[in-house]
Amino acid sequence: MTNSWTDIKNTDLVIIMGGNAAEAHPCGFKWVTEAKAQRGAKLIVVDPRFTRSASVADFYAPIRQGTDIAFLLGAMKYCIDNDKIQHDYVRAFTNAPYIVKEGFGYQDGLFTGYDEAKRDYDRSSWEYELGPDGYVQVDETLQHPRSVYQLLKKHIAAYTPEMVERICGTPKDKFLAICKMISECSARDKTMTSMYALGWTQHSKGSQNIRSMAMLQLLLGNIGVRGGGMNALRGHSNIQGLTDIGLMSNLIPGYLTLGTDREVDFQTYMSTRGFKPLRPNQTSYWQNYKKFMVSFLKSMWGKAATPENDFAYQWLPKLDVPGYDMLRYFDMMHQGKVNGYFCQGFNPLLSLSNRGKVSASLSKLKFLVVMDPLQTETARFWKDEGVHNDVKPEAIQTEVFELPTTCFAEDEGSLVNSGRWLQWHWPGQEPPGEAKADTWIMAQIFQRMRALYEKEGGAFPDPILNLHWPYRLPDDPQPDEMAKEMNGYVVSTVTDPVDPTKIVLEKGKQIDTFGQLRDDGSTACGCWIYSGSWTERGNMMARRDTSDPANTGAYANWAFSWPANRRILYNRASADIDGKPWDPKRKLIEWNGTAWTGYDVPDIAPTAKPQDVGPFIMNPEGTARLFSRAMMKDGPFPAHYEPFESPVANVLAPKIRGNPAARIFKDDLAALGTSDKFPYAATSYRLTEHFHYWTKHVWVNAVLQPEFFVEISEQLAAEKNIQKGGWVKVSSARGAVYAKAVVTKRIKPMICDGKTVHVVGIPLHWGFTGAARKGFGPNSLTPFVGDANIETPEFKAFLVNVEPSNGPATS
Amino acid sequence: MGLQSQDFARISATNFRPPDVRHDFEVAKLIDVSKCIGCKACQAACLEWNNLREEIGINRGVYDNPHDLTPNTWTLMRFTEWENQESGNLEWLIRKDGCMHCADPGCLKACPSPGAIVQYNNGIVDFVSEHCIGCGYCVKGCPFNIPRISQADHKAYKCTLCSDRVSVGQAPACAKACPTGAIVFGTKQAMLDHAQGRITDLKSRGFKNAGIYDPPGVGGTHVMYVLHHADRPQLYANLPENPRISQVVELWKGLTKYAGMAAVGFAAAFAFVHATIARRNDVSRAEDREAEHLIDEEAERGRQA
Amino acid sequence: MVVRREEERTTVDRYSGRVRVNHWVTAISLILLAISGAALFHPSLFFLSSLFGSGSNTRMLHPWIGVVLLASFAILFIQMVRHNFWTKADTHWMRHIGDVMSGHEENLPEVGKYNGGQKIIFWLMTLLILVLFATGIVIWYEYFGTTFTIEQQRFGHILHALAAIAMLLVVIVHIYAAFYVRGTLNAMTEGKVTGGWAFRHHRLWLRREARKGVIDERQVPPRRLGPNAPAE
């Protein structure tokens, strides 16, 4: 989230698209009901299904899954055509006036530089035109034909309301009604908030879905303001923390990136991470990258990380591919290239696309370690459960180790919520049986591995032998120790260069903020964005002060919000170019002539002059990007692409299947279905009664939603002679499942490009362990396709067939 | 549980109304259907707080699970898909069903067991299992079809409005768990006031018939709804439009009870008086003798025949 | 059925052992039903439930006693129904019920095994037991709670209550009559009545019985009553 859950109460319009906040985030959704009840805010829901969110919406419109970009580009076109954009904001705070290089173009669904064989672009033409001073060329009038603004207008010209209806199936009148509501939020005193989740990410163009809305929000002047923003609703209570501390194959904590095998030394690595400002006087905050990186390396290897050995940069692994995401890793496993797999808090047999492939991949492992508080299906992938897990145990040689772990309620530590709040929590009870904290288990393994390396040497013992391990109990590092390490501490005393008697940083003390981090090895910090969470003043994450001066929703003394306890990112943009709030009633920070003051921690140097420094300091431009340069693999602007499995062809570029730059392996491409055999547009989703595959183990939740079902329209049910509550067989090119049929008015057939499209909804909470009835997950059906940029699988749009059935027993 | 009659406003199957001296204020739960997202947190909270274990059922093609109230399910989300012809919009009306805690409770009126159903001074209607005999009369007394009799122990069960929590100043578990503030709890007056604000908001959003459901036919209730279509409560999974205790039950528990007692009493009294004043109906010696004659005659006839 | 002359008296067999057992099972059932039903009917009588152990037991037993009653009465019905068909004489008898109540049966036509009042009671009981049983099933929550709609159960309750009240009235008449008409109780205790009783109340029946024959168990022949003996 750019903003926070509590900030949603400040909004005038909530748009839920690509998510179902009421269903999947019912607790956070209370802030929507607050905004509605207290401010008279309106709620729009756009979804293939009339969801629980829609049940309390002021306006609902259907949309075919996987067509959000067309809808949003259409909305942008509406706002621009009707002069409903926040001009001053767009001109000052976005890259709209910037000039793009000659040679950039877009035709027939492709941007310049596409290489079909590689399924990738040469992105060199997607750049600004730089002047001789190294700064980007600008046309403040926005009239230059190669200005971002004009290119954008040209790019979205095709997305007329008629075209939106043709692609999305959204009736034109409903689309226009929504556009009108959205466009009103271009006023300075009106804001819209976007709430989205996996409904946007789990597509082959998920990143671009989100970018589309971010661009619309920028045009409306809604980023950085109270009640605005791009608000990603994270699926797990700590999934934000997972990404923050870099649990991705290509990340290290604080969104620093792992080096590639071409970046053989620290200098090479840093050479592409300098982030020179692209505009005069701009703050480009990533220029501090080296301070964060060196401090991270110091926290990893302590005294062994020295300036002489590049702070042990060499000990970090290097990537030979863009990333070992789960699709790639399981593909490698499928090819027999993986011996062992540690599966920690993950249930891939039900969570990863194409279950058949997942099962076959796990069967090729020599060993599998499952660390989980629950008895997962993955730990029993070898078990013959009849139709619910049709495998031959005797043919599977994988040795499986199941290590019971504690669950969050038995742990102490912090959880990071969607709004970037690190909230400390305490154990509610002792763990049952032999369950142990994940950290205890990892420490045990580490200690034994280190002993082996010590005894036997090995190919590359340094990173293991030198790992900084300062914990009171080496076998059991405690949450407070790790939290302090994440915050950062002073390794050696730093004195004022002018007055050496003056101590700037005292050895052994916790640092207060990442502004104190240094690139000379005198500070260590596990995750720079968490600096300030556990300072000399104590555990900031444990704060529980509910005071909220002026009722801004900031709650600045409740827990800790990264970065620097900032509650709304880019909050400089809440004020105009002179530093006065766009909407005095919604003041966040304000320039008082000498400094920024207000209710939130300014997202800019406190004394940075408003006319000089742009609000988006993490970009070298200082502005937000409507044109994302070469940062996105699949285009500097979003463009409509159909899902890889779609009931209709791409109207704008009929020859293109899916997102041309999306990740798909060759075998998986062959396993795609077509609409002649699998005519119905399926989507997967969660239900409020359950949490993923966890709560089916809980009796009460199993009572509330006991059995796997799929949802279809009354029309499709009539067409296929399917009874409400009867059994159906749902099949895709990759598998089949049996489910009960929920026949509902909440799903209606849509007309897309003249064709009737039936939607089949498949919730995902059932498996073959737990208290609930045995069932299936949609991943038996979903394709093994990933987003172009972050490889998130396309779970939200695929093709199936549906037939009435007698159920699993007799089929 | 002791029946401290001063704690109660009404006690089932007793001939007196308790003094109701501790009647300071009435509580109420307000369920704002327009804020409800049907997440069933209330259902889960009810099962958890009351430590109930419902059966794990099956899917019957709807979201309602379990499919009805049971002795273990005291509250239930009921989902209705309704096409609003006037606006052309689909509406998914979700209502939390459960005991309404009527001011004039039909269950209590019907109950034959003294103290098995009580109404506290604060308006909560509670079942006292210790005194419950499992007759099911409350089921017939209830205008909302709420009480359920357990086949295990033959006791009636329903929502207690968490009388245990309320008695120590806590809100009911469902209200505590509701993530959107659709369930609020307080004094009845505060809830009525709160509802007015909600109704104003709903009217501003085009629900011109928004209103509160506090049916006068049962003297008002201590569980109330804010409805978008208060003119048509039956849309919400057949919420009764004008609930009241069935006339048949009123007759059964009213006139019949007294008239029946009177009739039987009168008959007994008549017999007593008659026995006292009427001539003895006894066999005289003459009749004995005539009987002998008659027997002889008839025996003779018999022999001849 | 036998008319029997003994030393001191002459008796007529009225009820066989089987009938008496049935009658008393029915009677006891009815009384238990009345008590348990009354306990559930009116708060002031709820104390009666303690006779059955508790309110729950009362609730549980009452319908089962009803089943016993139905079975027992069904047999009784078969045993008695042939004597209970209505005749013109019964209509005549009923017209003079006032004379019966004031102890003047002399002017009435001779009565068979049962008089009009008894027959009415018989048929009322039959009807009421059927109604009580049928409505009792409807409101027997333990087994039929979901068989019938709540509205049907509500009607079941009021009909059951009304029928029960009617039944109580019939039973009161029946019992009172048994006491008021002296000598009647012996019919159901010993199974026999005196000749005089039969002569007074059911003369026609006595004639028929005597015609079948008389057993004389006297050791000493009786002092024959002369035809001129004065009538009392």
Folded structure, characterized:
- The complex is a heterotrimer of chains A (811), B (305) and C (232).
- Chain A has 811 residues and is an alpha/beta fold.
- Chain A contains 22 helices and 35 strands.
- In chain A, the strands form 13 sheets. Chain A has a 6-stranded mixed β-sheet. In chain A, strands 3-2-1-8-9 form a 5-stranded parallel β-sheet, with helices on both faces.
- In chain A, strand 6 and strand 7 (120-121) form a beta hairpin.
- In chain A, helix 4 crosses helix 8 (172-183).
- Chain A starts with 12 loop residues before the first strand and ends in a 6-residue tail after the last strand.
- Chain B is an alpha+beta fold.
- Chain B has 2 domains: 5-25 and 45-174 and 213-221 and 229-244, Alpha-Beta Plaits (2-Layer Sandwich); 255-304.
- Helices cover 31% and strands 18% of the residues of chain B.
- The longest helix of chain B has 23 residues, at 255-277.
- The model of chain B has no long low-confidence stretch (mean pLDDT 93).
- Chain C has 232 residues and is mainly alpha-helical.
- Chain C has 10 helices and 4 strands, in the order ββααααααααβααβ.
- Chain C has helices spanning 17-41, 55-80, 88-95, 97-101, 116-138, 141-144, 150-180, 185-189, 195-201, 203-211; strands at residues 3-5, 10-13, 192-194, 214-216.
- A 4-stranded mixed β-sheet of chain C has the order 3-2-1-4.
- Chain C is elongated, with a radius of gyration of 22 Å.
- The model of chain C has no long low-confidence stretch (mean pLDDT 89).
Which features characterize this protein?
heterotrimer; B: alpha+beta; four-stranded mixed sheet; C: 232 residues; mainly alpha; Fumarate Reductase Cytochrome B subunit; 10 helices; 6% strand
User: Structural class of chain B, please?
Assistant: alpha+beta
CATH topology of the largest domain in chain B: Alpha-Beta Plaits
Please count the beta strands of chain B (DSSP E, at least 2 residues each): 11
Strand order of the largest sheet of chain A: 28-30-29-35-27-33
SSE sequence of chain B, one letter per element: EEHEEHEEHEEHHEHEEHHH
Enter the CATH topology name of the domain at 6-235 in chain A. Answer: Dimethylsulfoxide Reductase, domain 2
Q: Quickly name the level 1 CATH class of the largest domain in chain B.
A: Alpha Beta
Distance between the termini of chain B: 78 Å
Largest interface: B-C, 63 and 68 residues
Give the termini separation of chain A.
46 Å
Structure class of chain A: alpha/beta
Percentage of residues in DSSP E strands of chain B: 15-25%
Task: Summarize the biggest pleated sheet of chain A.
Answer: 6 strands, mixed
Gross morphology of chain A is globular
Note the total helix count of chain B: 9
Please give the radius of gyration of chain B in angstroms. Answer: 29 Å
| Gyration radius of chain A, rounded | 27 Å
| Low-confidence sequence ranges of chain A | none
Mean of residue pLDDT of chain B?
93
Oligomer: heterotrimer
What share of residues of chain A is helical?
Answer: 10-25%
